[in-house]
Write a structure and sequence with these properties.
Helix content: 25-40%
CATH architecture of one domain: 3-Layer(aba) Sandwich
Structural class: alpha+beta
Family: Belongs to the oxygen-dependent FAD-linked oxidoreductase family.
Shape: globular
Largest sheet: 7 strands, antiparallel
Cofactor: FAD
Number of helices: 17
Protein name: FAD-binding PCMH-type domain-containing protein
CATH class of one domain: Alpha Beta
Keywords: FAD, Flavoprotein, Glycoprotein, Signal
Strand content: 15-25%
Bound molecules: flavin-adenine dinucleotide
Amino acid sequence: MAWKDEDEGKGVLMQLFPFGGRMDEISESELPFPHRSGNLCLVLYLVFWQEEGHEAAERNINWLRRLYSYMEPFVSKSPRAAYVNYRDLDIGVNNNDGYTSYKQASVWGEKYFKNNFNRLAHVKTKVDPLNFFRFETKTTPKPLVIVTPSEISQVQATIICSKRHGMQIRARSGGHDYEGLSYVSEVQFVIIDLINLSKIDVDADSRTAWVQAGATIGQLYYRISQKSKTLGFPAAVCATVGVGGQFSGGGYGFLMRKYGLAADNIIDAHIIDVNGRFLDREAMGEDLFWAIRGGGGASFGVIISWKIKLVPVPSTVTVFRVARTLEQNATKLVHKWHLVANKLDKNLTIRIDLQRVNSSTKQGGLTVQATFESMFLGTVDQLIPLVQKSFPELGLVKQDCTEVSWIQSVLYLGGFSITQSPDVLLNRTQSSVASFKGKSDYVTVPIPESGLEGLWPLFYEEEAQNAIMIFNPYGGRMDEIPESEIPFPHRAGNICKIQHIVYWLEEGDEVAQRHINWIRRLYSYMEPFVSKSPRAAYVNYRDLDIGVNNKNGYTSYKEASIWGVKYFKNNFNRLVHVKTKVDPLNFFRNEQSIPSLLPVGRK
Ligand SMILES: Cc1cc2nc3c(=O)[nH]c(=O)nc-3n(C[C@H](O)[C@H](O)[C@H](O)COP(=O)(O)OP(=O)(O)OC[C@H]3O[C@@H](n4cnc5c(N)ncnc54)[C@H](O)[C@@H]3O)c2cc1C
């Protein structure tokens, strides 16, 4: 049919672009673009038409589809490959409801990216993992209503109305809760989604900003950078995390060793309490203001906005990422890092990501890779001598480092390219391909090499294909802030926090259970090497395994202490007293909310 003189075919182009040469030499997995050796050419099919109207469009598109169909026997198969820059929605699209499974997306994804689609999905999950489908199944309990207030009075009305009708509230800002507590509940519930309350006012002169709870941290960083190149804020690494949940649980990132947590830098807040009242710091009083800076907002009301203190950053900072496998001495390096990471200059943060990778030396084998990822508040020439003095074994050289602005460091550490426009930080699109389960630990004594060696075999198990352990160094400013200053208690004496995390792409309970069991085994293996009495945890890495409230609405102080003391240590006691004062009937509650001492709800 291709040579027949069909009307629709008048404005037609078939372009054959030869491959081979350098394209044959680059491996398929070097970049996501997979079409390398073995291809004679790339064929582009185009049809143009000048007539207006749906009917003409339809006729011409159908003609092109017939041409595409005719070509099938003569072109690549399984998959019938395509070039992503010649976008073609005919080869498959995502679902409209915001969630597309890995399997569904593979229909078009493997055509564009072949085997690289899998890695793209994993990178996507790491840098923008919202709507984890562990909580997106048909059986996941759904809210009666989702309210998206654009006025504060609508939050007040929703609280009063929910109370009157015996419904619980789940406040959701960025939706990143590890156990889905901002949007899943076993009881009748209403979601207040603060997405429309996301205004950010930065005042560079007074070095402060008001940020509404529904804003993401990426949006806040972006707005700060628009006003000043020498101001920043010490909060999360991942741009899509909401400030509502994050700041109320602590909030850390690469500025933590210099300036502490996001919650350490909050100077005022607006909250709607259980009676629907709008309160600022003065009206809420110092107890409640203390509690919502680290004690989790969901137990106390709905936070509308935070006033934060911005922090100075130099116009040039330096970033690097250096990866070492076990064959490149990773065990010794990770151990040595434990001896120095929390004692380094405050301006320097080096974190470690541990993951399994394919080994280039062992045939078909696997190894564990430690990636040392860093941000230094200064130039490369200031950085190199610091690392050479404290951590020479890392072998850091100037060529490993890049000097950037602070906002570019946010891009780099958040998984973007430093050449991208900071506008990408405004994107809060929720797109998910993976489920995950996370846990956390604190380390107070360096993990010995033998402890690390015992860990590696766990990474070779099937479920660990997409597992990661992230070691965040403490020390610096964190050592100076007293444990009781805000509810977040993990201060002096900690070498680092570890985040344990496992992802999986497949659907179904059996797969989920296997991966969850794997991470529970990892957690159990780590017990001798981490903090004890309590085995401390970070509330923003919510983990319902460490204990939950009773379903009947009443949980005693002693019962709740099982999980409460792990997150808050001695501050748990004060949190319970604040809760009893501001919400005695325990209206704001969830699986790990601070209990009231009043025995309401007891059956
Ligand atoms: C990919 C990823 C990366 C992360 N990176 C970091 C990081 O670098 N640093 C860090 O510290 N943490 C990080 N976290 C953890 C994150 O801080 C917590 O998950 C945090 O609770 C998320 O806040 P949110 O508003 O996005 O979540 P949500 O799910 O909306 O809320 C979390 C909790 O806070 C409550 N809440 C939310 N908004 C309000 C409000 N306005 N008023 C009262 N209660 C509210 C919710 O009800 C829920 O209990 C990360 C999480 C993910 C998934």
